[in-house]
């Protein structure tokens, strides 16, 4: 993954700064696992329908917000494989393809302290790699009840309004939509 990050061409200043940080932390001990309680790698999926005019979002139980799909890499080095697994587990969809082989976006995300499976998890960072994917919006969605309360296809503007996480909306979701509009896929 280090080479993919090195080769990544930042879209904006946020990605430039976050790329620098990702390259610093990629060599840290346990950064691919949650054992590193300061920060660890995650993947996210920005999933478009076949017409590329809607995005799939889930209503995440911990964040109480509509958000992208994804999860922790949990020691895996093939981040694309993790993204595919997380997407399929969280959506129930089996027919999906990557629109871009390389990462579509990179972010360093702050995660507030929260309760997961009855245990408190302290605030920490997610060193996130986002993949752009396409799925069939007619295929039946299946909620992963231990993680989300809902799944829904939104047009790009609706997706921004549905999320109750202002920082993600302003700094990530808008950026992802802008990249799609400008043909970065």
From TrEMBL:
Q: Does the keyword Iron apply?
A: no
Q: Which UniProt keywords apply?
A: Hydrolase
Q: Name one Pfam family in it.
A: NUDIX
Record-level Gene Ontology MF annotations: hydrolase activity
Nudix hydrolase domain location is: 38-176
Which InterPro entries does the annotation name? NUDIX_hydrolase-like_dom_sf (IPR015797), NUDIX_hydrolase_dom (IPR000086)
- Respond yes or no to whether keyword Hydrolase is given for this record: yes
Which family would the database say this protein is a member of? Belongs to the Nudix hydrolase family.
Q: What is this protein called?
A: NUDIX hydrolase
What is the organism field in this record? Faecalibacillus faecis
């Amino acid at each position: 993954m280090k080479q993919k990050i090195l080769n990544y061409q930042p879209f904006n200043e946020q990605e430039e700064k976050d790329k620098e940080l990702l390259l610093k932390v990629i060599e840290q001990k346990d950064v691919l696992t949650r054992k590193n309680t300061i920060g660890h790698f995650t993947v996210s999926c920005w999933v478009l329908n076949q017409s590329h005019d809607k995005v799939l979002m889930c209503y995440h139980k911990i964040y109480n917000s509509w958000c992208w799909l994804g999860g922790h890499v949990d020691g895996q080095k093939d981040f694309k494989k993790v993204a595919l697994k997380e997407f399929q587990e969280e959506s129930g969809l089996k027919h999906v393809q990557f629109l871009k082989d390389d990462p579509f976006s990179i972010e360093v995300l702050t995660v507030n302290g929260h309760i997961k499976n009855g245990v408190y998890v302290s605030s920490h960072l997610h060193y996130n790699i986002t993949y752009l994917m396409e799925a069939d919006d007619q295929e039946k969605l299946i909620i992963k009840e231990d993680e989300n309360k809902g799944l829904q296809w939104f047009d790009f503007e609706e997706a921004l309004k549905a999320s109750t996480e202002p920082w993600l909306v302003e700094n990530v979701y808008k950026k992802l939509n802008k990249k799609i509009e400008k043909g970065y896929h």
